[in-house]
Amino acid sequence: MSDPRTTDPSTTDPSTTDTPVTGTRADTPVTGARTTDAWHELLHGRRWSSPDTMWVEDGTEYSGAEVGRLAAAVEAGVRAHGPARVVVIRSRSRLGCFAGQLGAWRAGSVAVADDHRLTEREFDRIRPDLVLTVSADPHPSVEPAARSPHRPRAEPLPDEVVAVNYTSGSTGSRKAVAVGRHNLLALFACRDLDVPAPGGRLTAGSFATPTYDGWWFDTWRTVARGGRVVCLPHVNDDVFAWPGLARTYGISRLLLPAAVLATVVEVLPEAVADIPWLFSGGEQFRVSTYRQARQAGLRHAFVNLYGPTEATFATHHYRLPEDLTAPAVPIGRPLQGCRQVLRPADDGPPGTRELVVTGPFVCLGYLDDGVLTHRFHDERGRPSYRTGDLVRTDGDGDLVFAGRLDGEVKVNGMRVDTAALEQRVTALPRVRDCRVVQGERHTVAFVRTDPATLGDPATRTRIETVVQDFSTAIGISLVDRYPVRAGGKVDVPTLMDHYRTTDKAEET
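Structure (tokenized):
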């Protein structure tokens, strides 16, 4: 067994038939001429003149050639307005964002997709030179929305920057992360993310919104590997359409945020019954969700993905066994090309270390006011990012998430390990999940339970007993589901609003 403290596995499933990205391997740095060649092939390859369906959205099929023509219109729009280093592609359709990114890249710009959800603060992070509005239907169109009124940048962005990831903002305002072309090419080439593709061509369902890192996996990696993308409606829009789309197009793979997957498994498991590979990421994948999926008859291959937004998309993976006996779902081992270093964590629980990720997935740094303000590298200048996540190694050599370095909160002057509290509550009967949230005035354990037991006094008593072992000052709110943001992560402000207006009001 390899030493889990510093490892670089490169295992691959021989049954996968995804088409590899030309001239790239995730475990070999993609630099210099090889980067240029691979990037050029991605932007100008034959796929963009193909009559085969590449994209499906809102009941309409688009060939590779049609996507390519829309991208050409965006490229012309960028070039017509002079030099534009950073271009925002604003579109209500996911195809508009995707083709817009392609067109902006062809014009040599940093492409930032905006589905009309970016805020002014998030615009200030990147300071775009041009904003284009792109429409795919009923008639494709590209129109300039605005030029940036900002002064020139204090310094130019590095040439290798081509895109931006926005963090979820769960620990504050959303940060902008500079993504390099080498980051994306390494992700597209990573064989550990391949799945079997019946008929030789992958069809992937797409749920991710364009401003979140799952977008690179859902869409660009799929197309780069020769596949087609089928856009799924949001859960709140029309989740009942999912089974028909999965059967019609033969969707083989779907990535869902952990909170969304938990909701789908509980409320409508048939929505994903025909999709053989389900990936979960963004937040901790709970054992209770997996067991509920198995009880609902879902026999899929489930893969738990882990990775900070600062590392493009994901760095670790773990395929769940048929019978999971562990108390927590591991985050597993590094993806091909990624490396890990486990640093001593003096303030962490015994047996835990801080996870540091290195390698080609690590992005360049944070952007603010249009410039790189913080680079991700170690003392030798190599790509490196300290996640702030605490992990431990299980008996099989897999990493298990054990909380955050900053995961301890003070409640009435006493330190509380929120990860330990959440794990103990989640292990209780009829409990699906637990999230501890600290606001300005309250610290609350939001416990997701079986809907039938929301008003059960015995269930609440068991939960209170565990929570009070940690602190009697922590409030408790029982919910049947968590509200989620557009990107699929739990909407913490909405949870706190719910507590202040309902649970807290009832207490007083």
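The radius of gyration is 23 Å. The first helix runs from residue 32 to 44.
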